[in-house]
Every structure is written in structure tokens, then in C-alpha cells.
């Protein structure tokens, strides 16, 4: 029997979908709470120790995008958006606002459960990262304390900007980072949204860490949105 301490908050105004999610989480022995409005969601986040939020965008009292923005003013709780909005522009806007992942309706429960497990696994890793200076994804390893990177146990040389970009991905393993978010973190808020410099930097980094840069194994492109450091096997410290 699974012994999970994490609490999942389901924020969904469609009773049929909400009940379906609740039933599926119950079968998997997850601990959860469910609400149908943004107001109730905010009350639960304040009153309870919530570890993951499953958030619909089309809420009756406040758009889910605003809920994300409000929560991100004071909390880093992982947020997995579940929405019928499937335009790339809308996904980018949600991710830029601070959501950690996005699942489009209709969805399979198998995929939702997989993404929940990934989100909770990342949460545990983040909680442990404060005591770790070395993190590994597959055969790629970064030493934050010494600013060193290893591939297949061999040290590889990165420029300061390449290291900064790779470190950003290692701090967000498995999470989609939008191009706007990456540019802001790497070059600063006043740089603008010129993606050419990012594409050139990404190309240079991939040539050093990927066996075949044209078919990357580590940093994959989320078309129209951004990039993701693909979770592979292990974390070391």
C-alpha cells in the first residue's frame, strides 16, 4: 500500500471531471482535496499544506491564469494546469505565469497520473537539493559548488553562459521553460525577447552535451513554447 504524505489540491468546476479525477486518485491511494472555485482554492492553499495543485483555467469566479499569478506572488507550490485551451500562445502564457506543466483536455488518466508522479518526484528532489552540490541526469552531471560539468565521467568545458544555461535547466529538471523565461534568467529582464541569441547559445551547448545535436537526448525542444531538460534516471549528491 502506498504511503504518501503529499496532498494534491484539485481545482475544477466541472463536477464530472472533478469526480473522475478524485476517483482515480483515490484508487491510486493519493491524498487529495477538491474545490470548484478560485476562492476556495486560495483558502485551501492558505489553510492546508498543499504539495501539488491540479488547476483548471475556466473557473467561474476567476480565470485560472490569475490564480497562478496570485499564488506565485508568495508560493512555489507545483501547479499542473489541466485545460481545454490548446493554443500554443495560451500554453506559453500559463507557463510564463508560473505553471509547472500543462495538460490539454481531453486527457488520459494514465498520462495525468504519470505527470502527477513526476511533479511529486521533482518536489522531493527540490527539497533535497539544498544539501546537494552534484546532480545527475543520465550520464550528464553538474557540480554546482565547483561549477563543473561531466559527461560520461569526463569533464567538459563550457563557457560561462553555457554553464549558466545548463544550470538553469538542472534547477528545473523535467519542467518546460519558455523562451521568454530563459532569456529573462540568462540575460536579464531588460534584454527583450530576441530568441536568436538563445538559439545560438542552445546550439553551442547541445554540441557539447549531445551525442547527436540534431536529435537531442537531454535538452528537448517544446515546439512553439521553449525547452525542457528531460528526466532520465537518477540524481546523485
From TrEMBL:
Principal location: cytoplasm
Keywords: Cytoplasm, DNA-binding, Phosphoprotein, Transcription, Transcription regulation, Two-component regulatory system
GO molecular function ontology, one term from the record: identical protein binding
Pfam families for this protein: Response_reg, Trans_reg_C
Keyword check for Cytoplasm: yes
GO CC term (a single one): protein-DNA complex
SMART domains per the UniProt record, alphabetical: REC, Trans_reg_C
Domain spans labelled OmpR/PhoB-type: 132-231
Domain annotation Response regulatory: ranges: 7-120
DNA-binding region: 132-231
Subcellular location: Cytoplasm
GO biological process: positive regulation of DNA-templated transcription
Positions bearing 4-aspartylphosphate: 56
InterPro entries membership: CheY-like_superfamily, OmpR/PhoB-type_DNA-bd, Sig_transdc_resp-reg_receiver, WalR-like, WH-like_DNA-bd_sf
Full protein name: Two-component system, OmpR family, KDP operon response regulator KdpE
Amino acid at each position: 500500500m502506498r504511503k504518501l504524505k503529499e496532498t494534491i489540491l484539485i481545482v475544477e468546476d466541472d463536477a464530472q471531471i472533478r469526480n473522475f479525477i478524485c476517483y482515480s486518485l483515490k484508487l491510486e491511494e493519493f491524498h487529495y482535496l477538491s474545490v470548484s472555485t478560485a476562492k476556495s482554492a486560495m483558502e485551501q492553499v492558505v489553510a492546508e499544506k498543499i504539495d501539488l495543485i491540479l488547476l483548471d483555467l475556466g473557473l467561474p469566479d476567476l480565470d485560472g491564469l490569475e490564480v497562478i499569478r496570485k499564488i506565485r506572488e508568495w508560493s512555489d507550490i507545483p501547479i499542473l494546469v489541466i485545460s481545454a485551451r490548446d493554443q500554443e500562445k495560451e500554453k506559453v502564457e500559463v507557463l510564463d505565469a508560473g505553471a509547472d506543466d500543462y495538460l490539454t483536455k481531453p486527457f488520459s488518466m494514465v498520462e495525468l497520473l504519470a505527470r502527477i508522479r513526476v511533479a511529486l518526484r521533482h518536489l522531493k528532489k527540490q527539497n533535497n537539493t539544498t544539501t546537494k552540490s552534484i546532480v545527475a541526469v543520465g550520464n550528464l552531471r553538474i557540480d554546482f559548488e565547483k561549477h563543473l560539468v561531466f559527461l560520461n565521467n569526463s569533464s567538459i568545458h563550457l563557457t560561462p553562459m553555457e554553464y549558466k544555461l545548463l544550470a538553469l535547466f538542472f534547477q528545473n529538471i523535467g519542467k518546460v521553460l519558455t523562451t521568454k523565461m530563459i532569456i529573462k534568467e540568462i540575460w536579464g529582464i531588460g534584454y527583450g525577447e530576441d530568441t536568436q541569441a538563445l538559439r545560438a547559445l542552445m546550439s553551442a551547448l547541445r554540441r557539447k552535451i549531445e551525442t547527436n545535436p540534431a536529435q537531442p537526448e537531454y535538452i528537448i525542444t517544446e515546439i512553439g513554447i521553449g525547452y525542457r531538460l528531460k528526466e532520465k534516471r537518477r540524481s546523485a549528491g
